[in-house]
Specification:
The chain is an alpha+beta fold and about 270 residues long. It contains six helices and 16 strands. It has a single domain, classed as Super Roll (Bactericidal permeability-increasing protein, domain 2). The radius of gyration is 21 Å and the shape is elongated.
Amino acid sequence: MITTLAPPPPFELPDGQVLRFVYCDGPPEIVDGVSGALPFAVSIGRVGGDPRILPPRRGRAQHPPLGPNGIAAIDLDLDGLNALLYELWRTGFLDRRLAEAGLDKRFNSDPTVQEFLSLRISKPVLALPPVIGAFANKLHLYADARIAIDDRDARTVGRVWGGLVFQFAPKAVEPVGVDLGALELSCERTPTMLVPCYADLVGALRDRGADFHGELTTTFTKLLSEIFVDRTVAASGFTAELAIRGATPSVMVVDRNAALHLELDATLVAPK
């Protein structure tokens, strides 16, 4: 395994996005007659405007064992998850997915907004890479976005701070659920001065957090599927390939660090 297998091949996502992986300097783990594990890392680039922007690092997390009937699994430490989010943000992939979700269009076309409010918002754009942390056996994602707020002839830049909470229950009907965890808005009076704004509107959206559960869960599940499902992992010299048909997520949180465990529904197939 150590000398023959290569890191996972590049994963091609919609609209030309590619994720690349490399080996990291961690030792391989071999359990004789049971399993083997190879450490890999996400290959990331630098932001041209500010190369100091990088994902946070928390160090190695504890990983759950492979399931009793499992064939293969992928464990993503918080470092790996944040590196993935960073790379997807750096290349604009996440902004394009936000645009496709149409949050601005849904807000602007809402009958209540149309009847009672004069303001309209633009599509959100992430100012910094989202970051994932762990607390109480859940994963928490935090993001900083910008929107343009038009109120008749006035326009201001809004800074949106939002959070999502991920709950995992691999044996449930819904193995993962995503909920709105936080939502705050400030407006730029000047580029260096922020003031509270539209507090009633933010409060109303926050109170409707349950309404976002289905859409957020669907979006995350789709993203997870695009990255890890319907993939084939192969190595030169082998007479079989590992075809990944599905992935069941769970999370292991220890001391504010965590690993997202993806138990793979996979099988060996003849190479095409």
